[in-house]
């Protein structure tokens, strides 16, 4: 009997020490999970490719600022039955007369002035590159946030699984003790059945909890784009930052929030689009030059063959005089787009401020809950210690001990959940301001 009580004390000592467990060889840290996701995640790769395309498009040639050089070659061959009547009245006829012509050369065209529209187009291309960079940053922030939140959810659920494991071990020891007491007549059959029901309940809870942990690991493997069946261990505890300051968050959001950066870029692009449209009021001046070679052959005619080659050059200028008032219409539309962009800036600023204020309030509440649940866990631990002493000397029943056991497990579960919620609140705030720091 004494040895069984020693086993119970040993098991309870483990749970009172926060249900520690042996780390597996496949430990995955949160930093490693983020690094793997950054290297493999499909959405991040797609955003990176979009940025590469935007960078490739930022060229002066794409903006229309460079000359175009074209090589031309044309060859025509004819077989004709021809009859010619000359001024003297003489007739000349030839069947299958051959007529050949060959033209080739190089032409160069260069728009040297279009109302400064080409410079506006070049600036728009640069803004599109900036837009791609911010969109990539936004995608990375979102995926990093998803990985971290999923990771620490696994930590919280794994800790709950460990608590259930410890509860099962305690219940097994209680069952053996109850059966021994029943065999010597110191306990009723009802006590044994109650303990057996408690054990079955714990094992059922463990199966459901193990399923939750496995599914979360599949989700994290999917975010990291690796084999879904890869098993791994996670860090032991959820650590959260309790030092965030509201005013500092608001200031950082103005500097780093991707949505604010994107809307500022969109406003700048709307202003550049107006400049590009206004360029249509000015003349377009284009230089043209080229060097051409021409050769013709004729079987019937005064000239049987001819050759020519030489340089041609000139200037083309055009200006829109009247286009059905479309120029005025497009300028008004561009101006309205600028006004819309300014309204969106104000709207997005308000949205971000509201999101930070709401998230910060939730963050403070979750910090308070984490501190409260930590205190509750300590109280539940003390209660379990006292109950354990009474159980050892036989002054309380197995049912009363079970209540203390469940209270402690529930306290551990609530404390882990409170820490996770505090971490998720912190993560949400950092995602909003655009600066998730793993240090």
UniProtKB/TrEMBL annotation:
Record-linked SUPFAM superfamilies: Outer membrane efflux proteins (OEP) (SSF56954)
Entry keywords, A to Z: Cell outer membrane, Membrane, Transmembrane, Transmembrane beta strand, Transport
Domain of life the protein comes from: Bacteria
Pfam families reported for this sequence: OEP (PF02321)
InterPro entries found in the cross-reference section: OMP_efflux, TolC-like
Cell location: Cell outer membrane
The keyword Zinc is assigned to this record: no
Presence of the UniProt keyword Metal-binding in the record: no
GO cellular component annotations of the record: cell outer membrane; efflux pump complex
A GO molecular function held by the record: porin activity
Family of this protein: Belongs to the outer membrane factor (OMF) (TC 1.B.17) family.
Descriptive protein name: TolC family protein
Protein's organism: Sphingobacterium humi
